[in-house]
Amino acid sequence: MKIGVRAHDYGKMEIEKMAETLAREGYEAAQLALPKVFSGIDSYEDITGAHLERIRRAFEERKIEIPVFGCYMDLGNPDAQVREYAVRTLKKCLAYGKEVGAKVVGTETAYPHLTREEKKQWYPFMLDGIKRVVEEAVRLDVKLAIEPVYWHPLEDLEAVGDVMERVGDEEHLRLIFDASNLLEHPDRTDQDRYWTEWLSTVGKYIEAMHIKDFYFDDAGRYCPVPLGKGVIRYEAISEWLHANRPDMYLLREEMNPDMAEEDKAFMRRL
């Protein structure tokens, strides 16, 4: 397995300085959301060919792979203008990701926390957006990776299975798996069974895993914590990785750099 991190958890830096920082910290891979991680890039509209060449060269020289080019868009929004911007931006980022050597361009399918009724309303818009972006992925021969989240339209195994079947192109449409975004009820979920079901059903589509941990406080607020200190039980996930995907990218999200060594050691044990 390859240990990586969401790069902007280390702040926003010049391209070469970020690559040097991640190499010094011992990471093998990084998820890059360019407007969040690199000085001089404040939006996807700011990205130039010169930026992409600098990124490709800096990360290649330091032997840091880019499994995910992050472009998280409000892809299923019923507002046609919002959705059109999301589709257009994702299509551009497919080309940008190819230029820097990224394995996939990754997105969730919404921004806000949706009600059950809203998720149903947004679902067909999400599906339309995914299909349109995958058409461009096919043209460029690159991969789009979508991330299931229980408060978004792509909320559960049924939704993932339906989308993958309707799009019908697992070569160009892949998944990012984030256990924390799928565990709505940690206090009453048999996680060994839950993760085994997820991974046995859709594991073949997964390109990268986000690794994080959390708990809900008394007010129901999400509180990130160091790995192993929260509610996520990684045993079944670890077993699946060893048996099926020992080459998986494990990307730490919500990294506190002060706890980096402890978190990296936890991921290596996975």
Textual characterization of the structure:
With 270 residues, the protein is an alpha/beta fold. It is built from nine helices and ten strands. The strands form two sheets. Strands 1-2-3-4-5-6-7-10 form an eight-stranded parallel barrel. It has a two-stranded antiparallel ribbon with strand order 8-9. α4 packs across α5 and α7 runs parallel beside α8. It starts with a strand and ends with a helix.
Major beta sheet, strand line-up: 1-2-3-4-5-6-7-10
Shape: globular
The helical percent reads: 40-55%
Report, as a whole number of angstroms, the end-to-end distance.
8 Å
Instruction: Please write the string of helix (H) and strand (E) elements.
Output: EHEHHEHEHEHEHEEEHEH
Which spans have pLDDT < 50 for at least 5 consecutive residues? none
The structural class is alpha/beta
Work out the helix count: 9
CA radius of gyration: 18 Å
Strand tally:
10
Largest sheet: 8 strands, parallel, barrel
Proportion of residues in β-strands: 15-25%
What is the average of the pLDDT values? 97
Task: Compose a concise summary of this entry.
With 270 residues, the protein is an alpha/beta fold. It is built from 9 helices and 10 strands. The longest helix is centred in the middle third of the chain and has 25 residues.
